[in-house]
Automatic annotation (TrEMBL):
Keywords: Bacterial flagellum, Cell projection, Cilium, Coiled coil, Flagellum, Secreted. Residues 1-134 form the Flagellin N-terminal domain. Residues 527-554 form a coiled coil. This is Flagellin. One of its GO terms (molecular function) is structural molecule activity. Residues 540-620 form the Flagellin C-terminal domain. Pfam families: Flagellin_C, Flagellin_N.
Length: 621
């Protein structure tokens, strides 16, 4: 028995020695979780945290390098714009000869190339200013224009747990690559298929309980609408709550097609909130006792699935869809046939496929379309083609309510300069129309229509003003070429008789307001010695410099956040590694001491074993 016990002790000491020697060679306290389950769980957790921290640090470094490269590109743009500012100042007035302006125009062209190269900056195999379109150049030359091929979406990465940082800057934010979107509220109707999340302009409605009382029986029911996803679901839940009762409830879309209507089969209905809830208010149906409840406007947002027939309060876009839209962008003017479009998505796809360098979508508020031009340096407009499609879609760029101050790329119309609009009628008489005080296109139309025999309207094709003369005579209808007439786009002569108007040109086109547009037009203005255009570009340049500096500030603030996060991650890594070392890694000095002690114990055990195992029967006689 003693021998067996001694042998067991020696084996245990040998195992412990082997374990200590393994710790010395591996540097860790255990190889298998079963050796120390609690410590193993803590170690695994710490290792996973450390791996996540390492990935976050990599993300921070990558994002920082991308943003730093973006800032360098913006710095190049800013430098080019400052040089352009000097060219404008030198080019205005008589301080420079035309030969000098021609040389400045060459320099402006060089600056445009410099900005275009910066706009196509590539870093780590990724184009920086294309939004999420990172694999191809975001800006390409197209004749004298520059087309933006990217989008306006962000690329985000985790810099820390639950902290997303945007590490890109799209071309529109960086260089102003798109026009302001065209699109006004086109009031889609409410349908049974409208989703609850699309109510209130896309903000949705938070639905819960409400109470409905039908006083004919009477019946009071608390209804839970939290599961409703569409208006049809709301209809079904409310009607089912009174199904089989003496008094039933009918739920429908109201006559205005913008809200609900609740009607009991008899008596009155009352709709109230439950507690401090807001369900009935969100559905616009809070009401005291009444024969029926006509709900308020739920303002449904436009979606890709919205039918064109449901726009404008249910009147759709009219019966002229086959006439299409007349769209001008740069050198392209095209009639786009939208007769086959049924939904908003169909319409947007049709516009996208028309190859007119457009950016199409739904506006941020969800109330209308958003159509922009991608061409810097080009004029852009959307007009009619003999119908009212552009107007009814809310995308016509010139309406009767359009401000004259917006004409000629913001230079306006000189209505208050004391020069009248001179129109020579076909009967040989002349009308001098004073437009002083006119502020909108409608004011101009009204002033012309107040003259005998003259009729002014918006062009039926494209945009601009048409003027007709019903007087009889052999002279042509002629509008004198003055700054006022030129700004309105109505200079010209129409020899044909009444019924054929003088069709004016579109002087209210939109343009991209960014860096590449300014530099493109600066070259032309210098070549032409156009002081008025140079002054306009000077104002645009000041605004563009401000915008570019704000973009650089945004990038700088993100870099600062990343720097702070990176420092915090580094500090956390030190703490995690220290904790992990205590849980998992061995203390070499302690292990060596334990080995020495164990060897002493083993030596004593061997000596005791040797003495004990020599005993025999004669030792006890």
């Amino acid at each position: 028995m003693v021998a067996s016990r001694l042998n067991s002790n020696i084996q245990e000491q040998t195992r412990m020695l082997a374990q200590l020697q393994e710790q010395i060679s591996s540097g860790v306290q255990f190889q298998f979780a079963s050796e120390s389950p609690a410590a193993a769980i803590r170690t695994i957790t710490l290792q996973k945290t450390l791996e996540l921290q390492a990935q976050n640090q990599t993300n921070v470094q990558t994002s920082s390098s991308l943003l730093a490269a973006s800032d360098q590109g913006l710095a190049t743009v800013s430098d080019a714009l400052n040089q352009a500012k000097a060219l404008i100042v030198a080019g205005i007035g008589d301080s420079s000869t035309q030969a000098e302006r021609d040389a400045m125009a060459l320099e402006a062209s060089s600056l445009k190339t410099q900005v275009l190269n910066a706009a196509n900056t590539q870093f780590r195999g990724r184009f920086l200013f294309g939004g999420t379109q990172t694999e191809s150049p975001p800006f390409t030359s197209q004749d004298t224009f520059v087309r933006y091929n990217g989008d306006q979406f962000n690329i985000n990465s985790y810099a820390d747990n639950n902290l997303l940082i945007t590490n890109n800057l799209d071309g529109h934010s960086a260089l102003g690559a798109l026009t302001e979107p065209v699109g006004t509220d086109i009031d889609p109707v409410l349908t049974l298929d409208t989703r609850i999340s699309n109510l209130q302009g896309g903000q949705g409605a938070n639905l819960g309980d409400l109470t409905i009382t039908l006083d004919n029986t009477p019946e009071t029911v608390t209804v839970d609408l939290s599961s409703a996803k569409t208006i049809k679901d709301v209809q079904a839940i409310l009607e089912n709550a009174f199904a089989g009762q003496p008094t039933t409830l009918t739920v429908a879309i109201n006559a205005a097609q913008d809200g609900l209507e609740l009607t009991p089969s008899a008596g009155n209905i009352e709709v109230t909130e439950v507690g401090g809830g807001t369900t009935a208010a969100h559905l616009g149906i809070v009401s005291g006792p009444a024969a029926s409840v006509t709900g308020g406007d739920l303002d449904p947002a436009i979606t890709l699935g919205t039918n064109l027939a449901d726009l404008n309060g249910g009147t759709g876009i009219g019966a002229t869809a086959g006439n299409g839209l007349s769209i001008t962008n740069g050198y392209k003017t095209q009639v786009v046939d939208i007769s086959a479009a049924v939904t908003v998505e169909d319409l947007l796809n049709t516009l996208e496929l028309a190859d007119l360098d457009l950016d199409v979508g739904i506006n941020e508020s969800g109330t209308g379309l958003a159509i922009s031009s991608r061409l810097s340096g080009a004029g852009f407009s959307i007009g009619e083609n003999g119908g009212q499609n552009a107007t009814n879609l809310g995308i016509r760029t010139t309406l009767s309510s359009t401000l004259l101050a917006d004409f000629n790329f913001g230079q306006g119309v000189p209505v208050d300069d004391g020069i009248p609009l001179e129109i020579q009628r076909r009967d040989g008489t002349t009308s001098s129309i004073d437009l002083a005080g006119a502020r909108t296109v409608q004011d101009v139309l009204d002033a012309i229509n107040a003259e005998p025999n003259l009729t002014a309207t918006l062009n039926t094709v494209g945009n601009g003003i048409s003027i007709d003369d019903t007087s009889v005579g052999g002279d042509p209808l002629t509008i004198e070429n003055t700054p006022l007439a030129e700004a309105l786009g109505v200079v010209g002569t129409e020899a044909t008789g009444p019924g054929t108007p003088l069709v004016g040109s579109d002087t209210n086109q939109r343009e991209v307001q960014g860096s590449l547009t300014i530099l493109s037009k600066l070259e032309t203005a210098l070549l032409n010695g156009d002081d008025k255009e140079l002054q306009r570009l000077n104002e645009m340049l000041d605004e563009e410099l401000r915008r570019v500096n704000l973009a650089r500030g945004d990038v700088g603030s993100r870099l600062k956040v990343l720097d702070e996060v990176g420092n915090r991650l580094a500090d956390q890594e030190v703490q995690i590694r220290e904790t992990l070392s205590q849980e998992y890694e061995v203390d070499i000095a302690e292990v060596i001491t334990n080995i020495a002690q164990l060897q002493t114990y083993m030596q004593a055990s061997y000596q005791i074993s040797a003495s004990t195992l020599q005993l025999n029967l004669f030792s006890y006689i």
